[in-house]
Design a protein that fits this description.
There is one protein chain. It is built from four helices and six strands, in the order H-H-E-E-E-H-E-E-E-H. By secondary structure, it is an alpha+beta fold. The chain has a domain of about 100 residues: Beta-Lactamase. A six-stranded antiparallel sheet has the order 3-2-1-6-5-4, with helices on both faces. A hairpin with a 2-residue loop joins strand 5 and strand 6. It is globular and about 40 Å long. The relative contact order is 0.16. Bound molecules: methionine sulfoxide. Methionine sulfoxide (SME) binds next to helix 3 and strand 6.
Length: about 160
C-alpha cells in the first residue's frame, strides 16, 4: 500500500492542515504501536511544512525522553518544568514561543532554531508526551498551528 501524502499545491497553512488530518488518521488506523505512529506523524509534518525540526518527547518518570523525530540530532532528556517542552508538560498546555532567545530556560538543541511550538499529548487528562516543532524563522507559529497540532495530538488518545 502506498503511503504517499497528498498535499494541495499553493494551499494556505490551514488548508494543508485540513488536508493532512484525515490522512494522518488513516495512517494511524489499525496501528497500535505508538512509536510507529509518532514516526509517521513527525515525517508527515516535516514533509508537508518543511519545518526545521519535528519530533516527540515521551514521558519517562520525571523526565521527557527523545522519541521519533525528523531533523538534526537533538537533546535526549528534558526534566519536568525545564525548557519549553518541560514547561508545556508541567502547565499541560500548548506553548507558542515566537523567539526562543526570549524564553527563560529555553534548551537550545540547535543554534538554528529561532521559534518553537510545543503541544502536550494527553491520555485521560495526563500528559504522556509532547509534540515539539522548531523553526529556523522567528515568529513562525500561531493559533492555527496550535489548533491543528492539538487535533493531531488527540489522534493518540
Ligand atoms: N527547545 C526545546 C528542547 C528540544 S529541541 O527544541 C528539539 C526546549 O526548550 O524544551
Amino acid at each position: 500500500m502506498a503511503e504517499d501524502l497528498h498535499i494541495p499545491y499553493g494551499a494556505s497553512k490551514e488548508e494543508i492542515y485540513q488536508a493532512l488530518l484525515p490522512q494522518l488518521k488513516a495512517l494511524m488506523e489499525g496501528e497500535p504501536d505508538l512509536i510507529a505512529n509518532m514516526a509517521n506523524i513527525a515525517s508527515a509534518l516535516k514533509e508537508a511544512f518543511g519545518f526545521f525540526w519535528v519530533g516527540f518527547y515521551r514521558m519517562a518518570g520525571d523526565q521527557l525522553v527523545l522519541g521519533p523525530f525528523q531533523g538534526p540530532p537533538a537533546c535526549t532528556r528534558i526534566a519536568y518544568g525545564r525548557g519549553v517542552c518541560g514547561t508545556a508538560w508541567k502547565e499541560k498546555r500548548t506553548l507558542i514561543v515566537p523567539d526562543v532567545d526570549r524564553f527563560p530556560g529555553h534548551i537550545a538543541c540547535s543554534s538554528f532554531s529561532r521559534s518553537e511550538i510545543v503541544v502536550p499529548v494527553k491520555r485521560d487528562g495526563s500528559v504522556t508526551a509532547v509534540l515539539d516543532i522548531d523553526s529556523d524563522r522567528l515568529d513562525h507559529f500561531d493559533e492555527v498551528d496550535a489548533c491543528y497540532l492539538e487535533k493531531i495530538g488527540e489522534l493518540f488518545c
